[in-house]
Amino acid sequence: MAFIDADKLSYEIFSFLESKFLFASSTAASLEKSGGSGGRIRVLSIDGGDRPSDVLLAAAALDRLESSLRRHTGEPSARVADLFDVAAGSGAGGVLAAMLFTRGHDGLPLFSAADALRLLVSESRRRRGRGFASSRGGLFRGVFRRPGGFFRRVFGDATLRDAIKPILIPCYDLATGAPFLFSRTDAVEADGFDFRMWEACAATCADSAPVEMQSVDGRTRVAAVGGGVAMANPTAAAITHVLHNKKEFPFAGGMADLLVVSLGTAPTEPSPIGAAELLRIAAEGVADMVDQAVAMAFGHCRANNYIRIQANNLMSGNCTPANFMRTAEDIILSQRNVESLLFRGKKLSEQSNADKLDRFGIELMMEEERRKKSPIPVVVIKQAMTPRTSSATTITTTVATTATTMSPVH
Question: Where are the transmembrane segments (predicted)?
Answer without folding.
Answer: none
